[in-house]
Specification:
Blueprint (H helix, E strand, L loop, with lengths): L10 H8 L3 H10 L5 E6 L2 E6 L1 H8 L1 H10 L1
Antiparallel strand pairs: 1-2
Helix pairs in contact: 1-2, 3-4
Length: 71
């Protein structure tokens, strides 16, 4: 799976790449402390948008490539 070709990266995938939990990703995006995308609250639920470029800049291309090779 090539992450660069995805319109947005799923929260689960970002958590696996970073080695953290899904709630960690969600809270970081909601609070604006994790600079890999954004969280927008619509009514009572959040929608998450994680971009390839921001994730790559945060973790480095090597971690992205490692993940892609494993999956």
């Amino acid at each position: 799976m090539k992450l660069q070709e995805m319109k947005k990266i799923p929260v689960k995938v970002a958590a696996e790449i970073l080695g953290v939990s899904i709630p960690y990703i969600r809270m970081g995006l909601q609070r604006g402390t994790l600079n890999i995308g954004s969280a927008v609250k619509i009514s009572t639920q959040y929608t998450y948008h994680i971009t390839y470029e921001l994730l790559k800049n945060y973790v480095g291309i090597e971690r992205i490539k490692e993940y892609e090779e494993k999956n």
